[in-house]
UniProtKB/TrEMBL annotation:
Keyword RNA-binding: no
Descriptive protein name: Nitrate reductase
Species of provenance: Microbacterium mitrae
Family per record: Belongs to the nucleobase:cation symporter-2 (NCS2) (TC 2.A.40) family.
Transmembrane region(s): 54-73, 80-98, 104-130, 137-155, 161-179, 186-205, 225-246, 309-331, 337-359, 371-388, 394-411
Membrane topology: Multi-pass membrane protein
GO molecular function, one term: xanthine transmembrane transporter activity
Keyword line: Membrane, Transmembrane, Transmembrane helix, Transport
GO cellular component: plasma membrane
Amino acid sequence: MPLWTRHGDGQSVKPGAIVKPTERLGWPSTIAMGAQHVIAMFGATFLVPTLTGFPVSTTLLFSGIGTILFLLITGNKLPSYLGSSFAFIAPVTAAVAAGGTGSALAGIVAVGVLLALIGLVVHVAGVAWVDRFMPPVVAGAIVALIGFNLSGAAWNNFKAAPVTALITLASVIVCGVVFRGFLGRISIFLGVIIGYVVAAIRGEIDLDLTGIPVFGLPPFDVPDFGSPTTWSVMAMFLPVVLVLVAENVGHVRGVASMAEDPSINQLTGKALIADGAATVLAGGLGGSGTTTYGENIGVMAATRVYSTAVYWVAGLFAIVLSMSPLVGAIFNSIPQGVLGGVTTALYGLIGIIGIKIWVDNRVDFSRPVNQYTAAVALVVAVGGFVWKPEGFEFGGIVLGTVAALVIYHVGNAIARARKTGADDGGPIPAVGPLGGDPNN
């Protein structure tokens, strides 16, 4: 039995149709879309090691290997790309300053082990308790806040070269609505190319390939568990686990909603195990910790292609690129303006996926508990709220997630005890047929 069945004629996707995880388009289209996913994740995946001082090529290598490992553990049924997680930036920076790279890698490995253990519990116990713990209004809020929390990063890139960013963003949108078939599905890729050309014309690209070899292995390093400093900084990594759980659960819910396949939610435990294993592998050999990437979720939302074949291509593409310092330098030369234009669209699409979860599950926003659950979580995320108790740092994703969970569960308990009707009463019942012409 083939790993993927061909979708239709392999060339086109009918309006309103989707390419399921178990399907694929023709290989030329699949390869091109895999390259598009690499470009989508590239800016963020490169930014994390750049900020923390880790080798960029090593991080890229383990993002590719981690993606393939993720696909294997989830049975080739859950399309996701594992890129370097922003949640590690603060604790890694602090750990490197206190005890060196070895201490930081030890913290990354510890996070991966704990995440995999949580995933094992979810897998064995089932996802029913996850559904109760994170009902649609909460799950949608978490997915949405992940995207909207990144809006500041998009703006920082955008404002660095607003003309280039605006042209790039407009190119992505125009290509997506003007072109049919293959060209329409790689609108993000085309937008990056157009933006890159514009940036080159405007003199915004800093690219010097002198002396850079075409092929070369990335550098490796190992964690240091023996140093007392390592254990003194380990507590700073604990909040990262909360972020990775929220991101993974949110992304699985988002993919299940987009791919119109609720059974994908059953893979939540395996997704956590896979991300944990990939993080352990990366941290054990000198790479950054990983997470399921919202940028690539945004690409799927734009293309409606959820084939895991595309992610196999993207993972292999990343591994090959990590072996070429020359190619890596070219990709790394994509300027801020181009990244700002693309991520403005991608991060917004992630937020819309969360809203789609609300719509698909007919969340009743006439109920105050649901209103405040979503409202507070989104403002915390968009506003970039930060809490820094001694030795820790909790950012907008963690605080927004905690706010959504606390408001929903505590608010429901109080409202039901008081019988005020403010609690979540379940989905709004449908009145008449959903969709179609109401006059027929």
